[in-house]
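Progress note, sequence design subtask.
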């Protein structure tokens, strides 16, 4: 059943609706969810930062109140002369009673300040239950004068906040606290300390009010990584941050966060622990070495958003199912007549195409479809009969075109002559034929004389192709016989005028390499274009227009000669180059062609010919109606042989001597005109080879030598590397990518590696 449904129009239609609906809903929800997620994240971050600022302000305010209270009392004591010890007992009790945030207060005087009280006199009062207790601090077991809260402010002559510590003697029970100590001075002379203690439990109660729910926690930590408060009640304070993070799967991240907190940074981070993902926000508490941090579990921030996502997915699933059911029923009822209509048309096509189309449904749209198919049926019958008549003539035409194409492909040899390097000549041509014209070119070399011909013949049928073949054969015969372009042109014209009515536009020429002289005879084409790359000049050579070959047997053609300077190119082309038109009727023309030659004059003949034809095609927008465009380009660059340069060095099998190879390459670069990138490639290559020989060819205790020699001229750069180590196992791929030839042999127990790079350097 489902296989049949998948082939129906209704199935494809409802499936398309579902896909579009899902894409629209999912994309809309994704955009909404991401924006909402970002808003929630930004809001949570802002709220957390505000809460931390509020907590910071509360703690700083409280600590400031402690400081002010104690400093006021110290000032009062400095201004009066206390002779009754009981006054100090009452004073500490009053401080604790009137400052609920102060856990305890002590006034510790210098040894024997009151001789009748002995060495130690330090009355201390603290909160205990609902009342206030008092006691005397200091004894031989509890030497208060050596403890930080007494010794440091005495030494510094200024107030301090101590690090958290466990008070064993002061409060009558073990209590973790921090102490604010202020030195007592009389006439500039130190005589004691007054302190105020803050219980870490009170500090924990203060920050616990910041926790919004069970998924958020707040704690305070000092610059040594010790907790002053913590959400884990079972944790013994002051615990160290490093100790509680050890063993956590995200311990590295936790240690990084701990360092940022102890460094008093303000930021936020993500923690992924065993209990899930959490977010932590932290900032330093002003005027202390403490930092406060708030941590939230992910559900606290994004719980409601995740719930909304699940609700949306559920609603989307139910809605898609409803669309599927209702859409399937509706569309199937509308498309059922189309199925019957398709079955009827199938019977007509298989049985008799001329049978009448039946009316399957009274539906207006189906009736219109039936009428349209009836009209189409009649048109197809007419067209089929017409096509059958045309097919016979088309087959005859195709056979003729295939034969013509085969002849055209044979017109230009696939292996034109390759000129010796010493001649300084590079030549390339392209025949770009169309349906209305056949272009051709040919060239060959006879000693120091280069012969060439270029032209086009109207038409692309078998007769035109055979005529081109005849022209090329006649050209080879007469060119080798006369060695004169005008005599060759006259002879070809006489031969073809008597036997053919086809006309050919041609240009015949020779180039004498030693004399650097170009001679040419024009018969209906544009004259040669000479591009001097040294002077950046582009000119059209002088020439008679003349008439095409085959016009009249008595036509006399004349030649022109001119010098071709070194580093020049000669561009020969058929009329289809400059006479190409675009859809707007604009002609390619001489100016556009000259600009093109000037822009790409540095290219070799092969690339320049292709560039010209590609630009013509783009200009004419690949219109088939344009005439052919055949290009033949001659590049002349006279070579001057450089004397051979030789040099060699010998190094030991020591990696530190590899740098001498780099110096050798620098020497080669300084005495030649090799490009910088090639010198860099050769440095990397030789350093790799020499290092490979040293490492793999010798043991650490063996002593050997490696010889590197090179020869350089304007054609090749040869390296020969000889060593007496173990044979090379392989030759690296980079050698073959950089060098043109590689040879490795073993002679007289020595490894000889030869590398050759073709320079092909040219200069005047």
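Output:
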């Amino acid at each position: 059943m489902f296989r049949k449904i998948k082939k129906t129009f209704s199935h494809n239609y409802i499936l398309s609706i579902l896909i579009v609906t899902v894409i629209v809903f999912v994309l809309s929800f994704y955009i909404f969810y991401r924006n909402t997620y970002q808003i929630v994240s930004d809001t949570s971050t802002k709220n957390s930062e505000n809460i931390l600022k509020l907590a910071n302000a509360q703690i700083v305010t409280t600590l400031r109140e402690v400081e002010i209270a104690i400093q006021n009392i110290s000032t009062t004591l400095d201004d009066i002369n206390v002779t009754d010890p009981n006054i100090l007992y009452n004073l500490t009790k009053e401080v604790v009673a009137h400052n609920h945030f102060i856990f305890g207060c002590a006034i510790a005087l210098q040894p024997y300040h009151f001789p009748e009280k002995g060495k130690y006199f330090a009355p201390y009062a603290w909160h205990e239950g609902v009342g206030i207790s008092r006691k005397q601090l200091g004894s031989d077991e509890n030497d208060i004068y050596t403890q930080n809260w007494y010794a440091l402010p005495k030494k510094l002559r200024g107030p301090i906040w101590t690090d958290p510590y466990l008070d064993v003697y002061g409060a009558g029970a073990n209590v973790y606290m921090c102490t604010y100590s202020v030195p007592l001075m009389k006439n500039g002379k130190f005589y004691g300390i007054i302190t105020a203690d803050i219980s870490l439990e009170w500090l924990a109660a203060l920050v616990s009010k910041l926790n919004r729910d069970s998924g958020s926690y707040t704690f305070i930590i000092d610059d040594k990584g010790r907790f002053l408060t913590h959400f884990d009640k079972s944790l013994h304070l002051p615990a160290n941050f490093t100790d509680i993070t050890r063993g956590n799967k995200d311990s590295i991240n936790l240690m990084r966060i701990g360092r940022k907190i102890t460094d008093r940074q303000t930021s936020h981070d993500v923690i992924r622990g065993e209990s899930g993902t959490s977010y932590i926000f932290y900032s330093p508490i002003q005027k202390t070495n403490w930092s406060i941090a708030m941590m939230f579990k992910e559900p606290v921030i994004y719980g409601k958003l995740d719930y909304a996502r699940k609700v949306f997915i559920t609603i989307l699933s139910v809605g898609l199912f409803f669309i599927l059911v209702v859409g399937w029923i509706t569309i199937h009822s509308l498309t059922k007549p189309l199925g019957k209509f398709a079955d009827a048309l199938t019977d007509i096509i298989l049985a008799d195409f001329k049978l009448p189309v039946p009316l399957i449904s009274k539906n207006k749209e189906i009736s219109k479809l039936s009428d349209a198919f009836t009209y189409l049926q009649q048109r197809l019958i007419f067209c089929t009969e017409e096509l059958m008549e045309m097919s016979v003539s088309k087959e005859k035409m195709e056979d003729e075109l295939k034969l013509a194409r085969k002849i055209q492909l044979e017109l230009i040899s696939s292996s034109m002559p390759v000129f010796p390097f010493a001649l300084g000549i590079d030549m390339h041509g392209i025949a770009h034929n169309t349906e209305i014209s056949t272009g051709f070119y040919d060239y060959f070399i006879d000693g120091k004389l280069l012969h060439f011909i270029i032209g086009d013949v109207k038409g692309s049928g078998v007769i035109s192709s055979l005529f081109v073949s005849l022209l090329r054969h006649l050209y080879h015969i007469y060119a080798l016989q006369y060695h004169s372009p005008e005599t060759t042109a006259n002879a070809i014209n006489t031969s073809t005028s008597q036997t053919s009515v086809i006309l050919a536009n041609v240009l015949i020429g020779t180039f004498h390499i030693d004399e650097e002289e170009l001679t040419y005879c024009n018969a209906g084409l544009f004259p040669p274009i000479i591009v001097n790359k040294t002077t950046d000049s582009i000119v059209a050579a002088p020439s008679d227009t003349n008439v095409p070959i085959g016009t009249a047997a008595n036509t006399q053609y004349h030649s022109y000669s001119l010098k071709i300077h070194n580093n020049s190119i000669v561009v020969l082309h058929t009329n289809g180059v400059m006479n190409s038109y675009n859809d707007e009727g604009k002609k390619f023309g001489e100016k556009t062609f000259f600009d093109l030659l000037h822009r790409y004059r540095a290219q070799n003949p092969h690339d320049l010919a292709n560039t010209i034809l590609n630009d013509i095609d783009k200009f004419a927008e690949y219109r088939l109606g344009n005439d052919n465009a055949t290009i033949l380009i001659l590049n002349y660059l006279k070579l001057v042989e450089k004397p051979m340069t030789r040099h060699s060095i010998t190094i030991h099998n020591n990696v530190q001597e590899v740098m001498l190879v780099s110096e050798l390459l620098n020497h080669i670069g300084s005495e030649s005109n090799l490009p910088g990138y090639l010198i860099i490639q050769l440095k990397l290559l030789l350093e790799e080879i020499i290092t490979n020989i040293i490492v793999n060819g010798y043991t650490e205790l063996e002593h050997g030598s490696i010889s590197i020699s090179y020869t350089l001229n304007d054609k090749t750069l040869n390296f020969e590397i000889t060593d007496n180590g173990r044979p090379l196992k392989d030759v690296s791929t980079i050698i073959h990518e950089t060098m043109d030839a590689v040879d490795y042999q073993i002679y007289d127990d020595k490894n000889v590696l030869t590398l050759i790079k073709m320079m092909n350097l040219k200069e005047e």
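Confidence is low (pLDDT under 50) at residues 1-6, 411-415. Work on this subtask will continue into the next period as scheduled.
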